[in-house]
Queue: 3 jobs
Job 1
Amino acid sequence: MARRRVPSTSAYMVGAAAASAALFFVLWWMLQGEENPWVPAGLAASVVMLVAASAREVVMRRALTRHLLEDEPRPARLDRVNSSEYRSSAPVRSQSEMLRGLEKQSAEADASNSLPEMHLKLFQMCGEFLQVAEKSLAAPNVTAERRLKVRARQDRVRALQKHHMLAWARDSAQSLTHEAQQRARLHEKIEAANRALECIDTALATYPDEGELQRSAAAVREFMTTSRVAHWVELAQRASFKGRYSRAIDCYRDALFYLTRAEGDHRLAAEQITREIELLRARRATHRVVETESGRAGEE
């Protein structure tokens, strides 16, 4: 069998260099009216050389691959395709092997206190297993015994899937809530807490009746309410200390606004803030009376 001749690299590169040089001189001549015309001409010529070199490398690789395949006898190629090397590159795993792998990784994730992302990855892997199992059930001529085995595996994987979704939501929410607690500014606290709430809501979309998720969401919302109320109460106290009673009353009203919108029983806190507002109103009225009398005394 005649061997295919691979084109000469040197001849190709000489041709590319000639085309690049011709482009350089043409652009240099066309840009004579511009300042430093050799700069854009040189850049264009360099680009042509780079593209030519890259294209040559791709062509040579394809030519070499085709050359080797054509020279290799067909039976040898078939043996190589059926070899263990090729089988390992695209393994076909049974459902029992996939289930054992999932259970092993699940146990490792639980034992090693893994990051939340690992639990999310396992949740997704469980979903992929369930898809494969569902397709196997749709295949023709599935025996009753086989169907029972697949259903049992699906139940086991669904339990793992739920476990890891709850673990991801719990660990993510705890980490983000802890981050929120360390923040100094209110908007940073609320931003981190909202991200924690998003993780919990994602899990609730799949398991809406899960009590653990509902309690976690309520705890995060309570933290957000407490942070907002504490922020406005602190501003009110500062304004009151400086004698800015109207400003203090407005801040207390903002705190009362978040309390009335929050879930749960906040009556005691709302009553305390209401009393503070009444005291500030009395102080403001007294302060105005004193200022009025001082002004009249000054006029007399």
Note: Confidence is low (pLDDT under 50) at residues 1-6, 67-92.
Job 2
Amino acid sequence: MRIGAVNYLNSKPLVQGLDELAPQARVWFDLPSRLADALSAGRLDVALVPSVEWLRQPAMPIVSDACVACCGPVLSVKLYFRVTPTAVRRLALDEGSRTSAALALILLEELAGVTPECASLPLGAGLHDTKADAVLLIGDRAIQSAEPECVETWDLGERWYHWTGLPFVFALWVARPDANRTELAEVLTAARDRGTANLAEIAAAEAPGLGISTELAVQYLQDNLHFALGDEELRGLRRFAELCGERGLAPRHAVRALDKLLVYGSTH
């Protein structure tokens, strides 16, 4: 079993004890965008992929009700503005992001009425490495970043929830069509359950390496995120699919795959 996981703090609760739960598995850690590519290329059996990548390949099955989602501020996906949002002409997008990049474009168009030119922000680069009007940062760097020179900062989870009233799903477990779904579901759900039962322990272990306080790490995992893919999360994902389809960011038929999941009430 070849499992692809993300090495961000937000995904640590999903991989807690995977080595014990699936001793026969090999786990690779990489950026979300690279995991999606590896899964498509057949180098992985299952991966925690950006939700927009599943929308682009909805024939690949979702194999667990474990996910990374938020219902309000997410803290780790932020859009920093050097000009007012309505004046943005150039947007720098974190190279590790795909779902958050699509979300940023949607919210800028819907809430600020702009469709900016996009540029890629290389991995490891930060706010001071680009002169773009707005800069998207994701993951641990966004948690750590504070930029008093910015005109405004959007937490994209918060903006999405206030606009739609729905949760936002950033990542979910997706497998190759020929994978053993039952086995994967059992292992991945058990890992999530173990992780969510030990959030304080995970936060204490990870916070020093990120340069943040244990209290902030606990708050992030307990209050900003949740890790279960239920009907409300699927409805949020469906709305995201509609908006992506309207803009050519994902195929329109992804909505039908989500309708089936909502009808049957199952991710398996």
Note: The two ends are 18 Å apart (CA to CA).
Job 3
Amino acid sequence: MTSKRDYYEILGISKNATEAEIKSAYRRLALQWHPDRNKSPEAEAKFKEINEAYEVLSNKDKRAAYDQFGHAAFEPGAGFGGNYGPFDGQQRTYRQGPFQYTYTTYGDGMGPDIGFDFGGFSDPFEIFAQFFGGANPFGSRATRKPRYGISLTFLEAAKGTEKEINVGGKKKKIKIPAGVDDGTTLNFDEFYLTVEVQPDKVFRREGLDVYVEKEISFPEAALGAIVTVPTIDKEVNLRIRPGTQPGTLIRLAGKGIKSPRSSRIGDEYVRIQVRVPERLSRRQKELLEQFEEA
């Protein structure tokens, strides 16, 4: 069986490449190897390989899994939770005259598709619109769906929400699926919607995981305690073990963000910060000195 090439090698980028560098490499190679422009026998296979590499590396979760496990991350039964492979989901086909291109979207058929980002193009045929200076080499094309943007709070994006937006002068109520991230593009029947997620003072997101900081006192760290911490659903009680050190990370399994593409749910990580008092009474100083001596 022929082994797959490294995705970074396919796009000609380093493993430290930024999102912008990944997108730029994809755009350049897509123009070069599209089968309707490049008539070499290997063009179709190259173009498919380029799109497969980009679909993985342009997604934060998939890229992290690929960096850790390689191609094995997307094999059946790899344990990444449901339809997580690069070609799981629903097939979508663009047709333009005699040409067509098939790609994958993710959704359950009940709401918006979470669309594949074609390197900044709205669809594969827009690659040619740029190459030919705005002209369409395929003749007249279907009317392009309008694009809108929406700003969500962190919790709205994490838990999902309903919003009312203005589409073509008409108000329309839409459902935003739980787990969308900043920059996600949702594909509705009549339009595309790009999501902007506002930063949050309490929660910080990394993939599907959520990070929060919890400040405790020195006695609580030394003796142990039960403290409350926020999660995206509600506050929960957290047990602090005696002798907990500053900077300790405590994992709350399943308290993170649900993937909009599968059944995976991330975790919450609580980073413990120990509060050191700036001013002490004479009695407090005496007690600490006794503690130090003991």
Note: The CA atoms of residues 142 and 203 lie 42 Å apart.
